[in-house]
Specification:
single chain; 552 residues; alpha+beta; 2 domains; 13-stranded antiparallel beta sheet; two-stranded antiparallel sheet; binds 2-acetamido-2-deoxy-beta-D-glucopyranose; CD36_fam; Protein croquemort isoform X1
């Protein structure tokens, strides 16, 4: 074998191999990465995420409550005076979540469970104590008055009488009573006694979180996709209390859809995301806002906006999705029904529905309010962003003391786009009660109509430092694979490029040697010159590879 020719061939083969290997790796690494990632993400009793999902103790979740202290309740009926509200708080709690009665259903790739939430007061991070007195709108009275409108004459007169006896529109209660321990009110017992409606709340006291601590009754029986069949379904709510529709809204607003909020499919786009909220009994849409960085990780920030808060959001509901509609309505019935008819005429696409309308559930409210009356036993509850952020300004004008600030009052979720892992979540909602005049109850004859802010909460969670570290490493793994393949390709190309260079170098040397020899020969007056090629081998290469021999 002649080394002089085999060297470029070897280099060429090696170079080609490297280029091929690099291309192969560059092409298959993302696919391989996807496959590994997908397997890691799917929820199963043995998956990495299972324990953290089952018991959230390792991930800090904080719940901060801010109350609006109503400082001038006596001026409510004075024309030109607005309620003055002073925000107090935060009253901070650590939230722990536990899933119980977990059943995996491999046959349809779902898991069914109940959720239990615990709250522990965190005095250190609070401003104030649970014993603080706060003046608020009397929610029990206002709710009763609201209900009286729709009850029978006898009911109405007896309630009117009772309400005229205890005419307070405001109450003074401690934070603890307002939230967890609740307080007694004669109207609660009365309402129970009278069996006012079938919607009477099953409680003997009133408190926003009364009986909720440690209870499994509030979030409902949930059936969620594990992503085993298709990772694009991971985390999706399938059934809520054994149904894929709710009884609170007309279709298609009654659909149980969206994510349970804890798992998201990987490889995010800037498309809207949807969470089903058991507290609101409806899905909530988050719109992509921008790309942000959290703990050195890139994330897509999605916020609650117009699509959820406005009263005329249009949405496309393909006819095939008819399964979401009430069993009594056919698809065609639905699309020709009165509540969507107007939209059908104005929009070319017959599948487009004004879902703002079906969420109004009757009378619409200004932009920024979500009517949860139906979902809260008929109490006139309205949810908004804190301080009426992103809401119709007329709502802010009704009271003194609300100042929206996107930094503090936005409701957002940040997902790491490759893995779909939530890295920063701030769920913030304000609870408002609609106060309005009533002819039936004298105390309420001349009150103004106000969506009255009561309190707001900020539920915060995100990645711990440990989790952020492993997430960064995992994301780096993807890039490292690509860098390596690029490096291999470059190496291969360099090897291939070196072949012509080698030839050129060799040729140059030969030429210069020939020239050199000619010069030498003429110097020494030699007649013939030849290059002894056979002499060039491993043993001899230390010597000059071209020797000049005078012709003997
Ligand atoms: C709420 O306002 C009342 C006076 O209107 C005051 O006495 C009370 O201390 C306030 N509560 C808090 C927690 O600041
Ligand atoms: C999956 O199967 C379980 C058990 O049979 C059932 O309870 C659940 O509703 C099913 N979920 C879906 C989405 O079909
Ligand atoms: C909630 O329940 C837990 C455990 O029973 C208890 O330790 C905690 O103090 C309760 N939280 C509140 C706010 O009552
Ligand atoms: C809110 O919902 C209730 C019942 O679902 C409905 O009666 C009412 O008209 C709606 N709107 C307002 C502004 O109260
Ligand atoms: C819907 O919201 C807009 C903006 O807040 C408001 O002007 C309008 O009156 C609302 N529609 C109804 C029917 O209340």
């Amino acid at each position: 074998m002649r080394p002089r020719t085999s060297k470029p061939v070897t280099l060429g083969i090696l170079g080609l191999l490297f280029v091929l290997l690099g291309t192969f790796l560059g092409y298959y690494w993302p696919i391989l990465f996807r496959r590994i990632l997908t397997q890691e993400l799917v929820l199963s009793p043995t998956s990495k995420s299972y324990n953290a999902w089952k018991n959230s103790s390792a991930i800090p979740i904080t719940m901060e409550f801010y109350f609006f202290n109503w400082t001038n309740p006596n001026e409510l009926k004075i024309p030109g005076k607005k309620p003055i509200l002073v925000e107090v708080g935060p009253y901070s709690f650590v939230e722990k979540r536990e899933k119980v009665n977990i059943t995996f259903n491999p046959e349809n790739s779902t898991v069914s469970y109940l959720q239990r939430r615990f709250w522990y007061f965190d005095e250190k991070n609070s401003k104030g104590s649970l014993k603080d007195n706060i003046t608020q709108l009397n929610v029990v009275t206002v709710s009763a008055v609201h209900k009286v409108r729709y009850s029978s004459y006898i009911m109405r007169s007896s309630l009117s009488y009772l309400l005229s006896q205890s005419p307070e529109i405001h109450v003074v209660r401690t934070v603890d009573e307002l939230l967890f321990t609740g307080y007694k009110d004669v109207l609660i017992d009365l309402g129970k006694l009278a069996g006012m409606t079938d919607e009477t709340p099953p409680f003997d006291r009133f408190g926003w979180f009364y009986t909720r601590n440690g209870s499994t009754d509030f979030d409902g029986y949930q059936n969620m996709a594990t992503g085993e069949d298709d990772v694009r379904n991971i985390g999706l709510f399938k059934f809520w209390n054994h149904k894929d529709t709710t009884k609170y809204y007309k279709s298609p607003c009654n659909a149980v859809e969206g994510s349970a909020g804890e798992f998201w499919p990987p490889f995010r786009t800037e498309e809207d995301i949807t969470i089903f909220s058991a507290d609101l009994c409806r899905p909530v849409t988050y719109e992509y806002e921008r790309t942000v960085y959290h703990q050195g990780i890139e994330g897509y920030k999605y916020s609650v906006g117009k699509k959820t808060l406005s009263n005329d959001t249009k949405r496309r509901y393909p006819h095939e999705q008819a399964k979401y509609f009430e069993p009594t309505t056919t698809t065609e019935d639905f699309f020709t029904a009165e509540h969507s008819g107007e939209v059908i005429e104005s929009v070319e696409d017959p599948d487009v529905v004004n879902i703002g309308q079906c969420y109004c559930n009757g009378e619409c409210s200004p932009m920024g309010l979500i009517n949860i009356t139906a979902c809260r036993y008929g109490a006139p509850g309205f949810v908004s962003l804190p301080h009426f952020h992103k809401a119709d300004p007329i709502l802010r004008d009704q009271v003194v003391g609300v100042n929206p600030d996107d930094e503090k009052h936005n409701f957002y979720i940040v997902l790491e786009p490759t893995t779909g892992i939530p890295i920063d979540v701030a769920a913030r909602f304000q609870i408002n009660i609609l106060l309005q005049p009533s002819n039936f109850v004298s105390t309420f004859n001349d009150v103004p109509k106000i969506y009255f802010p009561i309190f707001w909460f900020n539920l915060k969670s995100g990645t711990t430092d440990d989790l952020a570290y492993s997430l960064r490493q995992m994301l780096m793994l993807r890039s490292i694979g690509l860098y390596i393949s690029v490096a291999i390709i470059i190496l291969g190309l360099l090897l291939l490029l070196s072949i012509p260079t080698l030839y050129m170098v060799k040729r140059k040397r030969e030429i210069s040697r020939i020239k050199g020899k000619r010069a030498l020969a003429s110097d020494k007056k030699m007649e013939n010159i030849y290059l002894d090629k056979s002499n060039v081998n491993d043993d001899a290469h230390t010597r000059a590879d071209c020797q000049l021999y005078p012709k003997l």
